[in-house]
Amino acid sequence: MAITPNLAPVPTRAPAVATAGRAGTPLGTDRVRLTGGLLHDWQRRNRVVTVPHVVREVRQAGNLDNFRRLHDPAVGDYRGRYPFLDTDVYKTLEGIAYELGREPADEGEAAELETARDFFEESVALIERAQRADGYLGTFYQSPQSPKEPWQDLSWGHEMYNLGHLAQAAVAASRQLGDRRLLDVAARFADLVVERYGPDGEPAYCGHPEVEMALVELARETGDRRYLEQARLFVERRGAGTLEHTIFAADYFQDAVPLRELGSVTGHAVRMVYLAAGATDVALETDDDALLAHLEHLWDDMVARKSYLTGGIGSRHSDEAFGDRFELPAERAYAETCAAIGTAQWGWRLFLATGRADVLDHVERVLHNAYAVGLSEDGAAFFYDNPLQRRPDHEQRSGAEKDGELLRRAWFGCPCCPPNVVRWTSELQDHLAVADDDSLTLALYASAAIDSPALDVDVTTDLPWDGRVTVRVRRAADGPTTLALRVPAWADGATAAVDGEPVSELPADGWLRLTRTWAPGATVVLDLPMPVRAVTAHPHLDAARGSAAVLRGPLVYCVEQQDSPAPVDDLLLAAEDVPRLVVDEDHPWRVLRGDLAVAPPSGDDPYPPLGATAPTTHRAPVALVPYALWGNREVGAMRVFLRTS
Ligand SMILES: [Zn+2]
Questions:
Q1: In what order do the strands lie in the sheet containing 511-516?
Q2: Rounded distance from Cα 178 to ligand 1 centre (Å)
Q3: Distance from residue 53's CA to the centre of ligand 1 (Å)
């Protein structure tokens, strides 16, 4: 496969969300370089394992052949059941664009990147060739065997969802590689959508939101405000009930009431958070304070009443949807990996629009729990749904023991999550810091070299394993500038020091702002206490009432059966046990070791009389592992929430 010369990295590369927010502007991809620690390891694993794995699976599943067959009938019929399988190619390309924009660390990485580059080149050529003269692109409806014409089924056709992922891949290729070939394809398709569904067109919208945030980013990249206006129209029109509500009711599609009147996040969880992310982009770019305030209300309600402890969302399997407030059963958590990514995408935009530190606290929780759990430790197997409990006989959609695979699976018939993990992992550095001319704000923590107009710094941290964050100034602009550090709400008793001098005033709003004339070599040490702690559940959260879960820093822990001689369902967690759980610093997962009381049920009566208790029989040694890492060993029961009595 020929390597085209226009794939050389360009000097300044705009990040995934390129806009000025209240707290500053996200720094360019080449301005934040991960230098070590967990996120760095995730990115390396992504580059050498997950990207090659996903490329192989996408090829094998026929997603590329669906483009090829439009010009070569010998390739055979459309592969796969769904009209959105083009997006798995697009999401993979988005991630690959980032990886090709980075220097490989060694020969192994360089070899994997060459394979990824071949896939990129082959895919771009097929995509360019597949686009119709009028700009339409969607291999499902372009197929001669398609049961319907394009645009006949906006509820389930996913045609603009396809455009959204194409546009995001195109923007990434343009920004990371200076390669505008996909951008030209995406713009032509977007122009067709503007023509059909723009201000003078049919007032319709896609059954699966996603195109909204992509159109805003396309506008940011091209400077063409028609795409922003189109995104605004899609956000404002939604809820008019124009979709055909087949299979599921209007709520599923967020089509029962306008977004501005929606009382609480509802319906299909991925659809909801993608829509909200796009709407937040629209509010940010159009200075729509009323819309932004409503989105903050929806976010706060979701975080407080519709999110799992892990940050996962969606508790109804039948329609992959949010439940009612506090309807959060642990073993029936759907918590799709894509929904975690969508929550992080929404949260990042909401932070940009508001500057709120607590929004980032939740993004951090999602990142280290609901998101991280979706991928196996070896980087080549995926959960689709992410429950917080696995009973010994639990059947998980991700396919425990199905097809000979244990727990996480190599691929899915609906493979939305794996390539979503690829792209989001490749973009993590774009979500660590924002800056303006006289301030640098550290939003999420990872070891990184960060260059900004006011300050160049080196951040060193072993989070989430250890709570110390060291920031060393490498270069400072003349005059006073501000270094702002997020102090997570979980870090009760946090302290900070500048060049050894303790900082007296710690913040109430989650931001430690240090304004002074900085000199190279100046060092800030932020200490975030990470004692083992435990939480119970809101009294209305019936599914977790009478139980408690263990956390440390941003990490949620769980007990897997193999780490307990007693059935995990019989373990009791008491308040006095919590401080006695000891971090095993020699274990790569920093497991927590201790012993817990064991209280087996006293009989088979499913409904014992009120007041009856199951007495403790003995204590047993247990180890708790980070929830994100469960399911990497033998298959067995698992619990996040343990009984308290
Ligand atoms: Zn998914």
A1: 25-26, 433-436, 439-442, 481-486, 511-516
A2: 29
A3: 17
Give the tens place of pLDDT for each residue, 466-504.
999 999 999 999 999 999 999 999 999 999 999 999 998
Provide the phi-psi class of 590: left if phi over 0, else alpha when psi is between -120 and 50, else beta. left
User: 330 CA to middle of ligand 1, Å?
Assistant: 19
Query: What is the 273 CA–ligand 1 centroid distance (Å)?
Result: 13
Please give the distance, rounded to the nearest whole angstrom, from the Cα atom of residue 2 to the centre of ligand 1: 33
User: Can you tell me the distance from the alpha carbon of 62 to that of 413, in angstroms, rounded to the nearest whole number?
Assistant: 11
Contact at 8 Å (CB) between 164 and 97? no
| Residues 280, 353 contacting (CB under 8 angstroms) | yes
Are 80 and 63 spatial neighbours (Cβ–Cβ below 8 Å)? yes
| Amino acid type, 69 | R
Burial 478-502 (b: 16+ CB within 10 A, else e): eeebbbbbbbbebbeebebebeeee
Residues 6+ apart with CB under 8 A from 202: 196
DSSP 150-191: TTS-TTT--HHHHHHHHHHHHHHHHHHH---HHHHHHHHHHH
The closest alpha carbon to 174, from 97, 116, 111, 234, belongs to 97
User: Residues 175-205: pLDDT tens digits?
Assistant: 999 999 999 999 999 999 999 999 999 999 9
pTM, whole model, 2 decimals?
Answer: 0.96
Q: How far is the CA of 567 from the centre of ligand 1 (A)?
A: 32
Q: Is 468 left (phi over 0), alpha (psi -120 to 50) or beta?
A: beta
CA angle 320, 416, 129 (to 5 degrees): 140
Instruction: Kindly state the DSSP code that residue 366 receives in the 8-state scheme.
Output: I
* Residue 642 φ then ψ, to 5°: -105, 150
- The Å distance, Cα 362 to ligand 1 centre, comes to 20
